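Exercise 7. Given the encoded structure of a 860-residue chain, write a plausible sequence.
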């Protein structure tokens, strides 16, 4: 058995590990969690070479990597605040989950898939989108502009979100972890990357609500699937009130089984499982530190309230957002501390594309034994010539034949009899014909190699690539990852020799054999369907369509789809005014409060900072608004140019309705807002917000923080906190206030008796004193929350209702686009008169039956 350690061996020592015996290969289990507990996931990490203090939770190295000091005060405090979990992870098997039986599904949804990353990140979601289409869903894939043809050729709708994946790849190669190097900060790349993120956030929102830029067919999303780096997913779902489902190829959820792939753990003297768990929260917090203000600025643009520093990194966990991981459980099983709404489904594979190799490639393959594939795909190398020289010399030293992929760095040189340079070629066709593969460790490339039983060497550059390298090494299917920064002809040649060993090939084939029973794409679709609120989404009149409107007449409420609403209102125009936006999955984000002191203090500080921002914003906001408007117009021009070129290249794509065109188009230049005008308006708005901000802080934010702090304080001594509901408006504000007051008084007074009784029963007479202490604490906190809540909750409800009434631009945009899609559906489906009459009769019958049911209930 191979046991990893914090410090990794170098050179030949990396290759000397025990692999599984060939005679037992077919029955090899997935690697136990002990294999990965102590991995730092960065081969150049050396804890002895850094100096960390108890005051500093992390150290930023020259190459941008992060060493997280588990002995720092900040990390120790964080570990105490986090919930405890299972300890002996290695003694219990991962939880069972079975996707062998597909779910029946009959609701046809508009699904937008938001993906940020390279071609390797986009390709698995194309396979997912194609599978979703088989269930009747309309699928739009929103990603970078350059992938338009790639997506459309697969038969999916495409929406461009901006961003340059080549620039992102180059940035990540220079800064393999979250924190940039000093050189990067000095060069101004950070500002450009933040602007790119802002552009992609806006593009992701547009992809949810705007028509197809090429065909102008209306589209408003009913559900969102996204990879986490797209960042906009939860926020778009909140604005629309629809389900969101995250899918990713890299561990993004806290677990005790292995650390976050971007974290190097240092000074872990105790429980490595706890250190692993904490590493995810540290990385999430640092990510939000770098991009939180960008995300909050964008949230303001779609009229959502800002999210605070504590809640931002943990939104997915707080909201219990369903998560599907797209890797094989045969390689990395699901950790047993992951909850039921997280699935591990298998790798996503597309059908093998048709490919006819050029004659020179066919001749090279037939001229000798199977070659070794070496390629780094979409990685943009700093020094391609140096890398190529290293590869060529290593291939000669190892005595193998090689196919070298040119990739985005355009590797190429003299062609020898044992080396062939290849351009764009499907891995699905190429890898089965290789002896072994050497690559950067992207999840898609890794999956394709393992599926075909290829011994694999990962040369990781950033992100999840070291993680996959270690998982392959733990399974015996390849050597330990070889960092490009440490790569020499000698180390690469030795790693290639390791790949050519018989026992390495046996281990790789054993994993491939276990993967044969998996169907990752179908399992992911089933996972997506299982977590949808089916009954809440169904239209009451057309059950195979999702509801987006509600129609209330008296006490009767009916859920309607876009098509049903348009048919009804076209026959009864008076009903249009009664249509209300319906949210199938409302998302409410409230600030987390630990106790009344810290809660009140943080609210006071936040209000003070907001007021300061209103004053300084007279200068800073105009500059920001001017730059944002210029970039928005530049983006619109670029998008128009791209669409025009695509229409010329594909004349079959015609606008279905020119009148539908809305959003960010640059066609109507005369209607554009002046950047100077936006700057002047931003200055006026900033100072104008001073009084409302002060009023809200004093009457809502600070009292609510103290109230919620008092309400949740009993959790610190093990008592349960009663959930009295969420405040969404005036009515719910008064309702929550009443419940909190009533239960606060009842629970607070009764705790004086109940808590001593519980402690006495648990610990005998010695527990009475503890029980009295808990009872007194409950008396103060619970009754205090009730009294403060009498004013705080109604005030919060009034503030939310006022905000809902005033900030309605985004809601009006969504309603408009849904109506336009309803009109488009009616014009395309061409219902007959009898079908329209049948729908109207069903509506009247449904309203009548609901009214009768309520009447019968009231007479009982």
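Solution.
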């Amino acid at each position: 058995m191979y046991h990893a350690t914090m410090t990794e061996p170098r050179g030949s020592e990396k290759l000397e590990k025990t692999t599984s015996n060939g005679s037992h290969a077919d029955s090899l289990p997935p690697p136990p969690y002990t294999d990965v507990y102590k991995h730092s996931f960065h081969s150049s990490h050396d804890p002895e070479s850094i100096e960390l203090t108890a005051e500093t939770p992390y150290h930023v190295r020259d190459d941008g990597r992060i060493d997280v000091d588990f002995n720092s005060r900040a990390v120790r405090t964080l570990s105490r605040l986090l919930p405890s979990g299972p300890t002996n992870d290695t003694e219990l098997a991962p939880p069972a989950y079975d996707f062998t039986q597909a779910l029946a599904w009959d609701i046809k949804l508009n699904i937008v898939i938001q993906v940020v990353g390279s071609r390797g990140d986009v390709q698995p979601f194309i396979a997912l989108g194609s599978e979703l289409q088989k269930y009747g869903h309309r699928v739009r894939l929103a990603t970078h502009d350059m992938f338009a043809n790639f997506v459309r050729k697969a038969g999916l709708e495409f929406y461009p979100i901006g961003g340059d994946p080549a620039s992102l790849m180059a940035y990540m190669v220079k800064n393999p972890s979250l924190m940039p190097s000093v050189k990067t900060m000095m060069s101004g790349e950070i500002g450009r990357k933040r602007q790119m993120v802002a552009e992609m956030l806006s593009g992701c929102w547009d992809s949810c609500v705007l028509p197809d830029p090429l065909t102008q067919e209306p589209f408003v999303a009913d559900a969102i699937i996204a990879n986490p780096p797209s960042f906009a997913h939860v926020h778009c779902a909140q604005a629309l009130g629809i389900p969101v489902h995250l899918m990713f190829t890299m561990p993004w959820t806290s677990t005790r089984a292995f650390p976050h792939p971007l974290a190097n753990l240092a000074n872990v003297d105790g429980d490595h499982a706890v250190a692993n768990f904490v590493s995810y929260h540290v990385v999430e917090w640092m990510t939000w530190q770098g991009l939180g203000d960008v995300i909050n600025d964008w949230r303001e643009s779609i009229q959502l309230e800002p999210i605070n520093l504590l809640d931002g990194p943990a939104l997915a966990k707080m909201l219990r957002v369903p998560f599907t991981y797209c890797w094989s459980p045969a390689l990395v099983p699901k950790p047993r501390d992951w909850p039921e709404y997280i699935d591990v489904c298998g790798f996503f594979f597309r059908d093998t594309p048709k490919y006819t190799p050029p004659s020179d490639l066919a001749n090279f393959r037939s001229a000798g034994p199977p070659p070794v594939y070496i390629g780094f795909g979409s990685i943009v190398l700093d020094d391609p010539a140096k890398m190529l020289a290293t590869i060529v010399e290593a291939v000669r030293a190892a005595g193998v034949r090689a196919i070298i992929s040119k990739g985005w760095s355009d590797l190429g040189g003299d062609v020898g009899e044992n080396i062939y340079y290849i351009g764009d070629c499907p891995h699905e066709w190429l890898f089965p014909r290789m002896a072994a593969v050497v690559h950067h460790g992207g999840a898609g490339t890794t999956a394709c190699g393992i599926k075909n039983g290829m011994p694999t060497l990962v040369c990781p550059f950033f992100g999840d690539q070291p993680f996959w390298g270690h998982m392959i090494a733990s399974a015996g299917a390849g050597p330990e990852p070889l960092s490009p920064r440490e790569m020499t002809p000698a180390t690469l040649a030795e790693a290639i020799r390791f790949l050519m060993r018989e026992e390495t090939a046996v281990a790789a084939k054993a994993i491939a054999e276990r993967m044969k029973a998996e169907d990752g794409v179908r399992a992911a679709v089933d996972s997506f369907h299982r977590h949808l609120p089916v009954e809440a989404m169904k239209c009451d009149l057309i059950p195979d369509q999702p509801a987006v409107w509600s129609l209330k007449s008296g006490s009767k409420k009916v859920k309607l789809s876009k098509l049903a609403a348009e048919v009804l209102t076209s026959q009864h125009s008076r009903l249009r005014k009664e249509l209300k936006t319906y949210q199938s999955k409302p998302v409410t984000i409230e600030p987390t409060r630990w106790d009344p002191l810290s809660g009140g203090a943080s609210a006071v500080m936040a209000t003070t900072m907001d007021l300061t921002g209103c004053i300084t914003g007279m200068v800073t906001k105009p500059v920001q608004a001017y730059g944002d408007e210029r970039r928005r117009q530049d983006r619109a021009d670029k998008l128009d140019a791209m669409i025009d070129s695509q229409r010329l290249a594909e004349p079959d794509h015609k606008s279905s309705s020119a009148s539908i065109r809305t959003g960010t188009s640059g066609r109507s230049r005369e209607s554009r807002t002046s950047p100077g005008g936006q700057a002047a308006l931003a200055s006026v708005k900033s100072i104008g917000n001073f009084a409302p901000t002060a009023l809200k802080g004093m009457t809502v934010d600070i009292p609510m923080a103290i109230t919620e702090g008092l309400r949740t304080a009993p959790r610190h001594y093990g008592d349960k906190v009663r959930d009295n509901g969420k405040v969404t408006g005036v009515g719910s504000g008064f309702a929550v206030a009443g419940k909190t007051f009533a239960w606060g008084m009842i629970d607070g007074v009764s705790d004086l008796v109940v808590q001593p009784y519980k402690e006495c029963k648990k610990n005998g007479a010695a527990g009475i004193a503890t029980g009295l202490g808990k009872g007194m604490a409950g008396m103060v906190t619970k009754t205090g929350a009730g009294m403060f809540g009498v004013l705080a909750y109604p005030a919060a409800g009034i503030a939310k209702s006022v905000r809902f009434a005033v900030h309605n631009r985004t809601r009006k945009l969504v309603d408009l686009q849904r109506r336009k899609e309803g009109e488009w559906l009616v014009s395309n489906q061409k219902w007959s008169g009898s079908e329209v009459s049948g729908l109207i009769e069903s509506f009247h019958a449904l309203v009548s039956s609901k009214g009768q049911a309520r009447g019968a209930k009231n007479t009982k």
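Remark. The domain at 359-517 is CATH 3.40.50.2000 (Rossmann fold). Students should compare their own answers with the one above.
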